[in-house]
């Protein structure tokens, strides 16, 4: 059948024109937003973000990645896509985690500058142009620093420890590695896309490829709707990923610690031998010996667990399984 299966000529030409516009559209900024059960926040997030980006004056696109949401998030995202060719969607078949969702968005960006943003509205979308402006000063990566963070100390304390460990491991001292409100040059994103590890921490990974890195203060608000997707166990798992994924320093520290413990054991044994010669047989100190033994056993178990983390990472990598499975997309 001719003319697009019998469609009127003007309508067909309009559809062809719109298709060409989508294909030729090369935005300056791409915004990647992972989404997991955020139906209460999506409408406000999208309205504020689009208004902000339109005021900024550059061409943009936004890529929402539905990380296996079980609420109405996908249907809401589809409504955004139907209204604008700037909105692109990716949907996972199940939940794979925030960083895998961001990687899926990175693989589809077309902008020269790429920004990431959480969907929970704790980081204001109005701060995205600030990150882009700072990046244009010559930086490769600009991170957001939640100067007045609106979280409890139960979340702040683990985050502080993770930030300190990450700064030491990566070699780039930043105040807030946990903030996902960040901007990257396209070259850094492409370098990260070439990495195929199944578990990674994007802010730390980006800094290993960037020459100039900085961070600026950004806003932070209390969560108004929904619940946090990061539990304490997730932060601990993230900490292990950081320690074992970006440095061999922990395993080297285990070797040094093992040598020190062995040396301490030799000196302690020598002390007990001399004491027996001087004082003679005695029963006192049995509980002290047990306490010292428990300390040594605890250190050994910790070291074995750390080695197990490295072995487990190697096991996951050699299987070469896909990091995630995309169920459907909307371009």
UniProtKB/TrEMBL annotation:
GO biological process: lipopolysaccharide biosynthetic process
Keyword flag Membrane: yes
GO cellular component: plasma membrane
One protein family per Pfam: Glycos_transf_2
Glycosyltransferase 2-like domain segment(s): 30-190
Keywords: Aminotransferase, Cell membrane, Glycosyltransferase, Lipopolysaccharide biosynthesis, Membrane, Transferase, Transmembrane, Transmembrane helix
Domain of life the protein comes from: Bacteria
GO molecular function, one term: transaminase activity
Keyword Transmembrane helix in record: yes
Protein name: UDP-4-amino-4-deoxy-L-arabinose-oxoglutarate aminotransferase
Species: Dethiosulfatarculus sandiegensis
Lineage: Bacteria, Pseudomonadati, Thermodesulfobacteriota, Desulfarculia, Desulfarculales
């Amino acid at each position: 059948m001719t003319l697009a299966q019998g469609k009127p000529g003007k309508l067909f030409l309009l559809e062809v024109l719109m298709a060409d516009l989508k294909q030729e559209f090369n935005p300056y900024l791409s915004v990647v937003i992972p989404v997991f059960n955020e139906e209460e926040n999506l409408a406000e997030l999208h309205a504020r973000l689009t208004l902000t980006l339109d005021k900024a004056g550059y061409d943009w696109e936004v890529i929402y990645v539905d990380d296996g949401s079980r609420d109405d998030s996908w249907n809401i995202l589809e409504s955004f896509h139907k209204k604008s060719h700037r909105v692109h969607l990716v949907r996972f078949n199940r939940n794979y985690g925030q960083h895998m969702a961001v990687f899926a968005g990175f693989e589809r960006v077309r902008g020269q500058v790429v920004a990431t943003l959480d969907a929970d509205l704790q980081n204001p979308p109005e701060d995205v142009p600030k990150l882009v402006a700072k990046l244009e000063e010559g930086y490769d990566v600009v991170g957001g620093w939640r100067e007045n963070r609106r979280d409890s100390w139960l979340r702040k304390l683990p985050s502080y420890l993770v930030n300190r460990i990450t700064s030491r491991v990566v070699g780039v001292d930043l105040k807030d590695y946990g903030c996902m409100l960040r901007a990257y040059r396209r070259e850094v994103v492409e370098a990260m896309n070439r990495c195929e590890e199944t578990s990674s921490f994007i802010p730390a990974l980006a800094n290993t490829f960037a020459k100039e890195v900085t961070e600026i203060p950004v806003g932070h608000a209390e969560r108004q709707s929904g619940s946090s997707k990061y539990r304490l166990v997730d932060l601990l798992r993230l900490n292990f990923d950081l320690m074992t994924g970006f440095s061999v320093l922990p395993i080297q520290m285990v070797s040094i610690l093992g040598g020190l413990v062995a040396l301490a054991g030799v000196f302690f044994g020598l002390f007990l031998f001399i004491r027996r010669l001087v004082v003679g047989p005695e029963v006192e100190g049995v509980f002290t010996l047990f306490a010292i033994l428990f300390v040594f056993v605890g250190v050994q178990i910790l070291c074995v667990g750390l080695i197990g983390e490295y072995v487990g990472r190697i096991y996951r990598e050699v299987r070469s399984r896909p990091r995630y499975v995309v169920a459907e997309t909307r371009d």
